[in-house]
């Protein structure tokens, strides 16, 4: 879970996740939404992938990135559990 929090701590990576909620994208398509180098975007994608927040799949000559909602669901479940949402004060 540490990798997940590290990945989510950066606003650029959060924006990438926001872009991917609308569908799969290549690194080039993602890059068009930012004012930074392609290698920088690739590094952000590497961190997101390492945290399990995105999947990648090669289709032809392109690599498509997609959102992995399973990790996010686990994180939400954990937050729900530690907040004791079912406990009454």
TrEMBL record:
Instruction: Reply yes or no: does the keyword Transcription apply.
Output: yes
The organism sits in which domain of life?
A: Bacteria
Which Pfam families would you find in this protein's record? HTH_5
One of the entry's Gene Ontology molecular-function terms is:
DNA binding
Identify the keywords attached in UniProt to this record, alphabetized.
Answer: DNA-binding, Transcription, Transcription regulation
Which residues does the UniProt record annotate as the domain HTH arsR-type?
1-87
Per its UniProt record, what PROSITE patterns does this chain match? HTH_ARSR_2
Alphabetized NCBIfam families for the sequence? HTH_metalloreg, repress_SdpR
Its protein name is: Transcriptional regulator
| Organism of origin | Pradoshia eiseniae
């Amino acid at each position: 879970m540490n990798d997940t929090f590290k990945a989510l701590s950066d606003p650029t990576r959060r924006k990438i996740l926001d872009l991917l909620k609308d569908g799969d994208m290549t690194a080039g398509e993602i890059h068009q939404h930012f004012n930074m180098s392609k290698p920088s975007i690739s590094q952000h994608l590497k961190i997101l992938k390492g945290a399990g927040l995105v999947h990648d799949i090669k289709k032809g000559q392109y690599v498509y990135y997609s959102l992995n909602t399973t990790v996010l669901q686990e994180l939400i479940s954990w937050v729900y559990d530690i907040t004791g949402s079912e406990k009454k004060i």
